[in-house]
Structures are given as C-alpha cells and as structure tokens.
C-alpha cells in the first residue's frame, strides 16, 4: 500500500478520525455549556464571578461582535451557509494534510467551534453567549461562548503553524 505524503510534511497522511474527534469534543463541551447556562439563567441575567469576569446569558443573532445583529433575520441563513461551507473545506484540508499535527489541531478547533455555533443558529435562530469579560477602563467586551473560544484558539494555532513553516 502506497502512502501519500503531504506537500508540507514528510509524514504520511493520517486518518481523519482524531481530528473529527477533537471537533466533536469541542461541539459537545460547547453545547453542554450552553444548555447549562440557559437552564440556570434568564436572558440578560448576570452572575459576578471575579472583578473582571461575569457569566451572563446573551443571544447573538449576528456574527462576531454582534455584526449584522439587527439585519432582519437573513443573516441566520447567511452565516449558517458560510460556516457549513467552511466546515466542508476544513474537512477536505484535514483529509489532505492529516499528518500536520499543529495545522490539523487548529482546523479541528475551528471546525468544532463553527459547527457548535451552527447548531445554535439552526435550533434557536441565534448563538448563545455567556462569557463576559470586562475592565473598568474598557467596559464590557462582547459576550462569547466556548465555540468562539475554540475558533480563536484554532486561529492562533493556525498563525503559529504558518509562522513556524515560514521560518523553516
């Protein structure tokens, strides 16, 4: 059996399974956290945790930082379509470059976060956010969730992977 090698790595391509497993764990943790927060909080209710962090139940019908929040509803389908297209492309990349561990970790985290938020859009028409960081000099940052955190962590790993590749 011949092994295919990625053009970026001398390692043979590996299975999609571990990467889809990571994405599934992100989705599971994201959905469990959102179910928990919606059971314990009413919309807008806050619980102070530290001097810079609250838990709050917020709904975001838009995208990051509530972009297009008041667009009339079409944005739900638009952002869902974008996320599903991105998910399909990420799965293609995971299959093609399965041997690149850091790159695939980044993609798996982004995939899990994107699908976590798609589930919210399809089930509720909005994304459930609940992590609220604030600072007296800057005020409250937009609330976010575990899916958003996974997407940001994945983006950071993607940048790190690219910087490492460029420096070789």
Automatic annotation (TrEMBL):
GO CC, one annotated term: plasma membrane
Entry annotation: catalytic residues: 129, 148
One GO-annotated biological process of the protein: proteolysis
Keywords: Aspartyl protease, Cell membrane, Hydrolase, Lipoprotein, Membrane, Protease, Transmembrane, Transmembrane helix
InterPro entries the UniProt entry points to: Peptidase_A8
Membrane topology, record value: Multi-pass membrane protein
Catalytic activity annotation: Release of signal peptides from bacterial membrane prolipoproteins. Hydrolyzes -Xaa-Yaa-Zaa-|-(S,diacylglyceryl)Cys-, in which Xaa is hydrophobic (preferably Leu), and Yaa (Ala or Ser) and Zaa (Gly or Ala) have small, neutral side chains
GO molecular function: aspartic-type endopeptidase activity
Predominant subcellular localization, coarse grouping: membrane
Transmembrane region(s): 16-37, 49-68, 74-95, 102-119, 139-160
Subcellular location, record wording: Cell membrane
Cited Pfam families: Peptidase_A8 (PF01252)
PROSITE patterns with a match to the protein in the record: SPASE_II
First-tier enzyme category under EC: hydrolase
EC annotation from Swiss-Prot or TrEMBL: 3.4.23.36
Pathway: Protein modification; lipoprotein biosynthesis (signal peptide cleavage)
HAMAP family: LspA
Function text: This protein specifically catalyzes the removal of signal peptides from prolipoproteins.
NCBIfam families: lspA
Protein family membership: Belongs to the peptidase A8 family.
Name of the molecule in the record: Lipoprotein signal peptidase
